[in-house]
Amino acid sequence: METSLTLLLLCSFVFSTVTSEHDNVCSRPELADTIEMDGIQRYFSPGAELVLSCKEGHTPVSGPRRIVCSASGQWTHTKLKCIPKLCPYPDLLSNGEFYYEDVKYQSVINYTCNEGYILIGASSAVCQANGTWSAPVPECTPVTCGLAPIPKFGMIVYHKKIRGNTTDYGVTGTYRCLPPYVLIGNARAECTASGNWTKIPECRVVTCPPPENIDKGYMSSSDDRDYDYMETVKYGCHGHYVLEGSMQIVCQDNGKWSEKPSCKAPCSVDIQRGRILYKDQKLWIADMQPNRVLHKEIVSFYCKDNARNCGYAVPTQCTDGKLKIPECFEEPGAVDYNLYAGSLPSEIKQC
Fold first, then answer.
1. Which is the CATH superfamily of the domain at 24-84?
2. Distance (Å, rounded) from C-alpha 122 to C-alpha 135?
3. What is the pLDDT of residues 60-75, one digit of tens each?
4. What kind of architecture, by CATH, is found in domain 96-142?
5. What is the pLDDT of residue 6?
6. Which residue of 62, 148, 202, 231 is surrounded by the most CB atoms within 10 Å?
7. Which among 40, 44, 46 is positioned nearest to 70, based on CA atoms?
């Protein structure tokens, strides 16, 4: 029992002593994230001074840089502020771009080059504590190709003067073939962003077989021979047939002729009585001599609006010998046509 009482009194004395030692002392001050102090001491006696400084990469502005522990155990106030150091704004990057949000301490700039250019130098830079960037602005240099490959029996004409054995990205040229060879493929050449030239074409001799004639037509040439690349043959149609398509075909680089035209037949107007509108003229069908409408020509037939008692013209087109008569057209009888022609849809008031 005596031992327990002794321990209780001893603990009370120690607690009392520690508490009294910290009365009216200052604890280690809480500072802004950008401010620091030396040492690791936790408690300070009244009258103790602390020297404050800015952390790396920051500059002090306003306010004293010292604080004092007062008799009340509180530190004196300071208005010291530490602001981040600033780096200069970066120079422009020719043939490239850069991205950044700020130029203060620890800010980052990222550099990229445009397509067809290679970055020489650091792709990023950090604003350092001394107010300078960690790396200078890089350069964007163009991708280079060798000289353009030349097809057999061919040549290339560059679109700008070339010096040495290299060409820069974007340089272009035009391939040509020596006669009688024909260029097969794309004639335009370009140094691409990959450092390679576009696909090289081929130079070869191209001929087409003798062309065939078309039905109801004729050709400008009927020679039984092979025709050279880009040679042409013209077509025409007999009589009142109309040529549809290009009148000329050409021997293509694949050794085949371009699409042939065709000859389209004329139409006849298959009514016995009535009046039509043809080439802006109103004609009685009996007066239409010859009764012929060419392919793609327009003929209008007159129909009647019974409710309004008026006539109106409905157009239809000749298509390769076929002329469809509008469903609304009613061919008049012989009596109405011969004795009462004035009452026909073509003669009464038009709608």
1. Complement Module, domain 1 (2.10.70.10)
2. 7
3. 987 778 999 999 999 9
4. Ribbon (2.10)
5. 36
6. 148
7. 46
Backbone φ, ψ for residue 151 (5° rounding): -70, 155
At 287-320, the pLDDT tens digits run 999 999 999 999 999 999 999 999 999 999 999 9
| CATH architecture under which domain 207-264 falls | Ribbon (2.10)
HEC secondary structure over 210-278:
CCCCCCCEEECCCCCCCEECCCEEEEEECCCCEEECCCEEEECCCCCECCCCEEECCECCCCCCCEEEE
Upstream peptide bond of 149 is cis (omega within 30 degrees of 0): no
For tokens 């840089």, the residue is 65
Q: Per-residue DSSP letters for 13-59?
A: HHHHHHHHHHTT-EEPPP--TTEEESS---EE-TT-EEEEEEPTTEE
Mention the CATH class of domain 144-204.
mainly beta
